[in-house]
Design a protein that fits this description.
The complex is a heterodimer of chains A (391) and B (207). By secondary structure, chain A is mainly beta. Chain A has helices at residues 2-24, 33-39, 347-350; strands at residues 56-60, 63-68, 70-75, 88-89, 98-105, 110-116, 128-133, 156-163, 166-173, 177-183, 190-191, 203-207, 212-216, 221-224, 231-232, 245-251, 256-261, 269-273, 278-281, 295-303, 306-313, 318-322, 358-364, 369-374, 379-383, 388-390. In chain A, the strands form 7 sheets. A 4-stranded antiparallel sheet of chain A has the order 1-2-3-4, with no helix packed on it. By secondary structure, chain B is mainly beta. Chain B has one domain (2-27, 39-206): Porin (Beta Barrel). Chain B has 1 helix and 9 strands, in the order αβββββββββ. An 8-stranded antiparallel barrel of chain B has the order 1-3-4-5-6-7-8-9. The chains are: A mainly beta (391), B mainly beta (207). Chain A binds chain B through residues 3, 6, 10, 14, 17-18, 21-22, 24-27, 29-38, 40-43, 350-352, 355, and chain B through 55, 67, 69, 72-73, 87-88, 93, 104-107, 109, 111, 118, 120, 137-139, 142-152, 179, 181-183, 187, 190-192, 194.
Chain lengths: 391, 207
């Protein structure tokens, strides 16, 4: 009898424990471990190192060129698949073995690049220089001589923007401030009308509908119809401590400029309604655990008959919003969501790309190939909304 | 060659030990044979092979209710430690704790699981053999890439141990491991119940 009572008690305790465990079962992120294994597809072995942090990918002539501290190139595949030969190191100018940015000037058939020398302990002291060429060969000589952009001593070139009719370059350092310089003949550089900024220019876009140039630094938005008519834009009504921009992007589909916040307490992407000259904020965007998303750069990604706006995030992969039928929504009435199976498949979650930092994108419309630049987790590509693979 | 010699040597020792026990069998009266009593304890080590069986999708409308797990995972390995106390000469109640791993077929992703179970064992005794029949229930932490799942686990098992008469028993165990990963709401369709088999070499110390 005693044993029976003991067993009954043990049964009650164990079943209660089991019920409690069920109640507290949790996996807020991801798509489920066993489901993930069930739907996992093999990823093609990339030829780039897996830990690189790409800063820019461009297609020029018959090749892709990649700036990811080292300078890489590969032939553009004929089909959407990765060709057997893969990526290899491309030639840099002598004394400047590393690269920080790239830009293509299609009208003049030129490629521009910011290269820098062996970094010292203080990264800012590495000498950088702008180079331009019409043909990259296997010889260091193909880059020619460095182009002087900024005569101020100790200045570093931080970013290139080939937008509209100009090539812009952000140049300066912390003590002298950063200037936005530009060229249209790709030989002589002029300074924009903006006074020096305390932080570098991060991103740029060109509104081809209104002919407006847009630039952002970490805390400020500038716009203007020409490089000498730029002015600080009335950025969304935020206090100075809430201004931390992640990226700015002009949507050809919507003919609207989007601005993303990288601030840890906002989780907002704005669009600029130039009918009323106002920034319209999205709803607050959070991940499945309730953490506010910190956005980076954006891109459009057409999949089938729909077009999506993708926004890279800090540690949450990318978030997306269908924009095909988006017509100037009201403040707080639109939002970005985790990708469903339209712009990717389950492998996006299976392989952990959903928890990586994606800083920016490049889209090759001729190959319907979208590239995602991660921080420290390599370059990924997706062809036509299928699956993500490593480059 | 040396390895083979070592293995043969230890197998010989093992069988000699068993042989010695069987040889003694006639001389020891059954009532004197190393019976356990309430309050006695055991400490066991188990290590062996994990065989993925299938993932069950409990959704009644699922197209594929049973997904072969062995097509998605390679066989893996595991190691457990177990402590138990005798409730009476035939039953033990204890805790089992260990680590399980397997690797995915597609991209060699490592799946780690740490089950901690309360384990009830009933011993069938055919001296010098023991057949432990066990049932365990507890918590399990599964990890795959950045995903972490905390949930329940249940296991059913049977073994065959040889009492070596020096506080040690050696043998093997076969366990059926059930790991439900249950979701509610919009992720309910991701619910799966994973089923594995574990085959282990087991060493048990009685004290």
């Amino acid at each position: 009898m005693d044993r029976k009572i003991l067993l009954n008690k043990a049964f009650v305790i164990l079943s209660s424990l089991f019920c409690i465990i069920f109640l507290f079962s949790c996996n807020t992120e991801g798509i489920g471990i066993f489901y993930s294994l069930e739907t996992e597809l093999p990823v093609s072995e990339g030829s780039l190192p897996e830990e690189i942090s790409p800063t820019r990918l461009v297609s020029y002539l018959d090749k892709y060129y990649l700036a990811a501290r080292s300078f890489y190139s590969r032939n553009i595949p004929v089909s959407g698949d990765t060709p057997a030969e893969g990526w290899s190191k491309a030639v840099s100018p002598s004394e400047y073995p590393y690269i920080s940015d790239l830009a293509v000037i299609p009208e003049d058939s030129k490629i521009a690049a910011i290269f820098y020398s062996e970094p010292t302990e203080d990264q800012f002291s590495a000498a950088s220089a702008l180079f331009m060429t019409s043909e990259i060969t296997d010889s260091e000589e193909s880059w020619g001589e460095a182009i002087e952009v900024d005569s101020r001593e100790g200045c570093t070139q931080t970013a290139l923007f080939a937008v509209g009719d100009y090539l812009f370059i952000s140049t300066g350092n912390q003590s002298l401030g950063y200037l936005l310089r530009y060229t249209s003949d790709y030989i002589n550089f002029e300074t924009s009308n903006l006074t020096s900024s305390s932080t570098p220019f991060l991103d740029s876009t060109y509104d081809s509908d209104t002919g407006t140039y847009w630039f952002i630094t970490e805390t400020t938005v500038y716009s203007g119809t020409s490089p000498d008519l730029l002015s600080e834009n009335t950025a969304p009504g935020l206090s100075q401590d809430k201004r931390k921009w992640g990226g700015i992007y002009y949507s050809d589909t919507l003919q609207r400029v989007f601005l993303s916040s990288n601030h840890s307490s906002l989780g907002i992407i704005y669009y600029y309604n130039d009918d009323v000259n106002q920034w319209i904020p999205s709803a607050e965007n959070k991940n499945a655990s309730g953490t506010i998303l910190q956005f980076y750069n954006l891109t459009e990604f057409p999949v089938g008959t729909k077009t999506y706006l993708l926004a890279g995030t800090l540690g949450n992969g990318y978030y997306e919003m269908e924009i095909t039928d988006l017509s100037d929504p009201e403040s707080g009435t639109f939002s970005f969501s985790r990708p469903d199976n339209t712009t990717t498949n389950d492998n996006y979650y299976n392989l952990g790309l959903s928890t990586k930092t994606i800083r920016s994108f490049s889209y090759d419309s001729s190959k319907i190939r979208l590239f995602a630049y991660t921080t420290g987790s390599g370059l990924w590509f997706n062809t036509g909304g299928d699956t993500w693979n490593r480059e | 060659m040396k390895k083979i010699a070592y293995v043969v040597f230890f197998l010989l020792l093992f069988f000699m030990q068993i042989g010695a026990i069987f040889a003694q069998e006639e001389t020891i009266p059954p009532e004197n044979i190393n019976l356990y009593d309430k309050g006695d304890q055991i400490f066991s080590l188990h290590a062996g092979l994990l065989v993925p069986l299938f993932f069950a999708n409990p959704d009644p409308g699922a197209e594929t209710p049973v997904i072969p797990a062995y097509e998605h995972l390679f066989p893996g390995g595991f190691g457990y430690i177990e402590w138990g106390g005798f409730l009476n000469p035939d039953m033990t109640l204890g805790l089992e704790f260990g680590g399980v791993f397997a690797v995915s077929n597609a991209n060699r992703r490592a799946l780690f699981m740490v089950p901690v179970t309360t384990k009830y064992t009933y011993l069938l005794r055919f001296y010098p053999l023991e057949v432990p029949l066990s049932v365990g229930i507890g918590v399990n932490v599964s990890k795959l890439n950045d995903q972490l799942f905390f949930g329940p686990v249940a296991k059913l098992g049977a073994g065959l141990l040889v009492d070596l008469q020096n506080e040690w028993s050696l043998g093997g165990n076969l366990h059926y491991l059930i790991i439900p990963e249950i979701y509610f709401g919009e992720k309910a369709d991701k619910t799966r119940i994973a089923n594995f088999l574990t085959l282990s070499f087991s060493a048990q110390y009685h004290f």
